[in-house]
Amino acid sequence: CAFSGAKLGGDGAAVAATVAARLPIQTNVAPSAPRFCGFSGARLFSTAAAPAPGKRVASKLSMLMNKPNIFAESTMLANKYNSANLGQGFPSYGAPDMLATYLTQENVTDIRPNGGFAFQYSVPGGSFQLRDVVASHYSEALGYGPPAAPYGAPELKESSTTSAVPPLTRDGVLVTVGGQEAIYTALSAWTDPGDKVAALTPCYDGIFASASLQDVEIVGVETRPDPEGKQGWSWDEAELRAALKDARMFYITNPSAPTGSCYSVDELNQLATILEDYPDVVVVADEVYHHAILNGAEYNHVSSFLRDRTLSVFSAGKSFSCTGWRVGFIAGPPDLVGPCRLVHTAINFCPATPVQHALTALYTDGIQSFVTANSEVLNKKCEKLCHVLGKAGFTVHRPDAGYFVVAEVPASLRERAGTDCDVELAKWLTMEVGVTALPLTPFYTAPPSDPSRVFLRFAFCKDDATIGLAAERLAALAHTPLAPFLGGATKSAPTAAAEPICAFSGAKLGGDGAAVAATVAARLPIQTNVAPSAPRFCGFSGARLFSTAAAPAPGKRVASKLSMLMNKPNIFAESTMLANKYNSANLGQGFPSYGAPDMLATYLTQENVTDIRPNGGFAFQYSVPGGSFQLRDVVASHYSEALGYGPPAAPYGAPELKESSTTSAVPPLTRDGVLVTVGGQEAIYTALSAWTDPGDKVAALTPCYDGIFASASLQDVEIVGVETRPDPEGKQGWSWDEAELRAALKDARMFYITNPSAPTGSCYSVDELNQLATILEDYPDVVVGGDEGYH
Questions:
Q1: Partners of 249 in the β-ladder
Q2: For residue 363, what are the β-bridge partners?
Q3: 703 contacts: CB under 8 Å, gap ≥ 6
Q4: How far is residue 563 from each of residues 281, 499, 568, 686, 713, measured CA to CA in Å?
Q5: What pLDDT is stored for residue 555 in this prediction?
Q6: Is residue 5 a contact partner of residue 630, using CB atoms and an 8 Å limit?
Q7: Which H helix or E strand runs over 138?
Q8: How far apart are CA 460 and CA 382, in angstroms?
């Protein structure tokens, strides 16, 4: 496996079975079909390890746990049949060598020659330097004025231009953990549970999961290809207006993913005219493929037509073929970006700082030469694949941009395969032809309106060997009789999915959205354009984070869940502002200002900083979801016995865990029990999201890490504090009152404890932890979140 380093052999099913036996994942409902890793074919989802009775994962996970994962299933099949896999959208030819140089210069030592830190937190929402160069790069293209400083300047000055339109500045840029987090953050900032988002489909499927987690409905507006196979997919105005009527947000991918169409000036003008009638709708323009323009196609940013209401989403991973760097951007008016920054800070605070510094240097040096060269590489691969598909009888809808070709399957081929279902056709193509593509229906909210037209998506962002093998097999397809899939299945048009049912409660997921909205509204009054009680300032620089001068335009309502974040004083920010003002010795912030150990830099200057690694796999592309197998293995081995599990199943540092040879009655901690997150903040947010629902309560020993308050607020979860008090004689230790703790646990879904305690620094004794365990025996449904960041 190019991502995990695991040996796949020829039999992907055997690999999946082996891994499944070793890696059961919690659920108490059997899924309709097994789930497998989208990269290695390993089973991701097993019924073997259900949560203990009474422990309910969040109901919002039901869609994610029960919806088939077409990426995983297609890759499992590709591994089993040794197919040329054109299903996954990552560059298997690797990132450009020059990227490694940006991680091997000054960025890999913590205390940098020009000052500042590379291995510590950046300011929330991204470093000033990176946001400055990104703002400068995009300002005019997005419809703003000329940049306020020369491109790449370390700080933007007041604009000296006479443009009537101000430039895009750092206040209008948010640095996120990839484009996926940018979309999730925008949804969280600008929608509430029960809201609707109109979206042109087919579209990036990641928005469906993000919306599901927030109880937001995606209302698809189908775009349709030209009947003669010409470029362009178009929408119907009446259908778009119907979807916008009750929408809070409009989502558009441009260039379109997965079709690759770039919307024309006329289409974007039409869109702007339509949206004039819906002034309260916020626009999210997902433009991650805008640096992958093919064959000189014309491209225009949505924001250049709808500047004052558009949040543009970009991805450094897509722009520079380094999907594993996990850095994305939101760019737009500060009044729209500000609420997104609040959400982002509560989820994961900031992306990895060394990568931010590397990207700052890259943008400063200029990226156009790379963008041009990369587009040429992609164009050649696209041309070859389109030619072969056409020869094989497919109607090719040639893309303007991106990584994918969408091709219509001819009736003759569907007849040979014995099916009109795109999912079954994709399987047939893998099993009988040896080429893997993805069906297009998973990128819609409902089956396409014309069942007579069936489409598959082929990725051409692949190495020459994979493209060549696929071309060879597709060329043979035009001349070789092949058996029908599964012995000649009868033709069947795609059918509507069964009504979704919650995997844990059995409740229908449709429900009464209006009632849900009313309940939430009663509990969380919507804050429409309310000025915060005091300005908010950056906890590191003292810069203002949220200005009352740029309140959302009337009618545009930020999500009600932001009210606590917008109105609660930020003591970190205010104390730092005061320290800056009075030149005070600042002992308020909790990061090591003496820098990280020098040896850390060596781990970024060895094999890990080139994409195609000496031992195989990629360092700059996506890992498997939840963290690489290797990292999860060594973390599991490191912590197994300390956390009360059995002896580790392999020597510490082994690349893969073997079956345990010990006789311990307690099994070891394995990779299946480890999740790699973007810092401890995201770990807390993720645990809350997975194990609580809106309206639930979490008992927490206080004082505690304050980040949980923001994470809980975003999810409408109440933190019930149980005060710990210091010894009256000043001895070490802070203790709780058992009656108070039991009262808080009575209605709680989760218990949160910091150990060592943050901020008091107390380590709980054996007696205290035994007492806690005894108390919790009376509350078997409560999940414990042990925040041990300072252990």
A1: 197, 282
A2: none
A3: 724, 757, 759, 760
A4: 20, 34, 8, 21, 9
A5: 58
A6: yes
A7: helix 128-138
A8: 6
Cβ pair 755, 763 in contact under 8 A: yes
Nearest to 341 by CA among 465, 182, 232: 182
Instruction: Say if CB 172 and CB 539 are below 8 A apart.
Output: no
Q: Looking at the DSSP assignment, which residues form a beta bridge with residue 459?
A: 404
Q: Which helix (H) or strand (E) holds 672?
A: none
Residue 515 tokens, joined:
């009632």
Beta-carbon contacts of 5 under 8 Å, excluding residues fewer than 6 positions away, are 615, 616, 617, 628, 629, 630, 655, 656
SS3 sequence of 93-124: CCCCCHHHHCCCCHHHCCECCCCCECCCCCCC
Give the angle 673-679-682 at the CA atoms, nearest 5°: 80
Q: Give the HSE-up count for residue 631: Cα atoms under 13 Å, Cβ half-sphere.
A: 13
Q: For residue 234, which phi and psi values (nearest 5 degrees)?
A: -120, 155
Which residue type does 71 have? Answer: F
Structure tokens belonging to residue 281 = 């709708």
More confident residue, 204 or 530: 204
| Residue pLDDT, tens place only, 381-427 | 999 999 999 999 999 999 999 999 999 999 999 999 999 999 999 99
The separation between CA 470 and the C-alpha centre of its own chain, rounded to angstroms, equals 30
Q: What is the DSSP pairing of strand 233-234 with strand 224-225?
A: antiparallel
Q: Please, which residues have CB within 8 angstroms of residue 788's CB and are 6 or more apart in sequence? A: 754, 755, 756
240: left (phi over 0), alpha (psi -120 to 50) or beta: alpha
Polymer length of the chain: 791
Lowest mean pLDDT among 273-277, 311-315, 508-512: 508-512
Vertex 342: Cα angle to 243 and 173 (nearest 5): 80
d(CA 341, CA 343): 5
Strands 435-436 and 84-85: parallel
CB 516 within 8 A of CB 215: yes
Q: What whole-number distance in Å separates Cα of residue 263 and Cα of residue 272?
A: 12
Residue 543 near residue 339, CB atoms below 8 Å: no
- Can you say how many angstroms the Cα of residue 282 is from the centroid of all Cα atoms in its chain? 20
Q: Are 545 and 572 in contact (CB under 8 A)?
A: no
d(CA 301, CA 232) in angstroms, rounded, equals: 16
Condensed to tens digits (0 to 9), the pLDDT of residues 331-340 reads 999 999 999 9
DSSP assignment of 536-577 equals EE-TTT--EEE-GGGPPPTT----GGGHHHHHS--HHHHHHH
Tell me how far apart the alpha carbons of residues 358 and 134 are, in angstroms, rounded to a whole number: 13
Long-range pairs for 728-737: beta carbons < 8 A, 24 or more residues apart: 732/762, 733/762, 733/765, 734/760, 734/762, 735/768, 736/701
SS3 698: strand
**3 state SS of 194:** coil
Q: How far apart (Å, rounded) are the C-alpha atoms in residues 62 and 193?
A: 16
pLDDT reading at 538 higher than 80:
no
- Residues contacting residue 405 through CB under 8 Å, at least 6 positions apart: 260, 382, 385, 386, 389, 396, 397, 398, 399, 457, 458, 460
Q: Which helix (H) or strand (E) holds 15?
A: helix 12-22
Strand partners, 396: 407
Show the DSSP H helices in 150-195 as ranges.
178-190
* Tokens found for residue 721: 């504090």
pLDDT of residue 504: 23
| Identity of the amino acid at 110 | D
Pairing of strands 35-36, 43-45: antiparallel
Q: What type of residue is 445?
A: T
Of 49, 57, 64, nearest to 184 by C-alpha is 64
**CA-derived radius of gyration, the chain:** 27
